[in-house]
Write the structure tokens for this entry.
Amino acid sequence: MPETTPNSITARIVHLWDKTGKLQVIFSDADVLDFSALTRITKRLLEPVSHFNASGDALTRTAKMPTLIDKRLLKKATINIHCSAQSDLVEMETETFLKLFSNFPHSFDHFTILQSRIPHISTDHLLDSNELHKALGRFQSIRLKQRLEETLELPPLPITSKRIIQLCSKKNVDTDVLCDVISLDPSLAAQVVSWASSPYYGAPGDIESVEDAIIRVLGFDMVMNLALGLSMKNVLDLPKNGPRHYQNFWFNAIFRASLMESLVKKMPAAKRPRIGYAYLSGLLHNFGYLAISHILPTHFSILSRHLEANAHIPTERIEMHLLSFTKEQLGSWLLRHWGLPDEICNAIRYSKSPVQSEQDNILAALLQCSYHLCHTQPISNGLANIIGLSEEECLCVYQEVQSSSSKLQEMASLLQS
């Protein structure tokens, strides 16, 4: 694979389409593909052909697919590019690269955003309320009021969720009290029992009640936080026009929650956070995604196209470019507004921020670790030291959870029914 030098650039290729046909765009993989610029240039409403393609598409040189090349590529002497789906990056002189299109329809323009121009995320969640309020003021469809919660006009939490949150804040809660609260919602009680009965946990015999689920399988803390997560799932609907790689939203949420649970069980006892908090953090880590789709449905559709085409860029950079806030900021603010424990809200808020020490939220470090595992990214020594697990141990845990994907899919069906 060729090395990137100051006078070379790596190109990213994305295939787009609309009803009139396909278009191949080529630009620097360090930049963000800007659909508003593409619409202005082409007068077409294009969307990616691939659902989610972090490595980009392979080069196509046919008369059937015209090519639009970003002018920034032309400033370098050499270009690294995938010439076919099977090949590694190939380095060629820019002049040679341009000759590839001499007999095919192509044009040049500026249609990307430099990452350096995208604002950075605040490092302090105490500033989120003001920053969210300011960011939403950019969208004329939102009528700003004095308080952010009034501006957003969010649906209320279910009564059961409120009661479980109240239990979370108490130190000594009897099992019977939790069972009574969950049993007030027969559907929720049935889901908790079905969860504990899942082959994933492999409990012997039948699980016949919420009390059975607590005593025989999951434990008090786990059931309390699981029930809270399950009771909140209908507050915000899963969007129909979201990025296509989010179609398995609830399976991904359950997978992350199960991975968090398994990582905690492997951690040294002195470092372990509450297992229920870890599970709920994983289950709700992407809750801000649902909130964005509810608050800004039109802009969410635009965001979805950008996330699909720019799979090589961290999602928070795309969100800051288009919205000036991230789903982690909005999701953690919303959960905090609803009264969820600070440990969970902070874990989600800082799940993509550098964790410097154990004094920072260790749940955030676990969420980061689970993200790296799910995206086949290395786990730094610093992160491994904070959670007390080596990269090899984390990979073993991930592989164990991955081997149970079919069982987790059955659990996800409970959330989709």
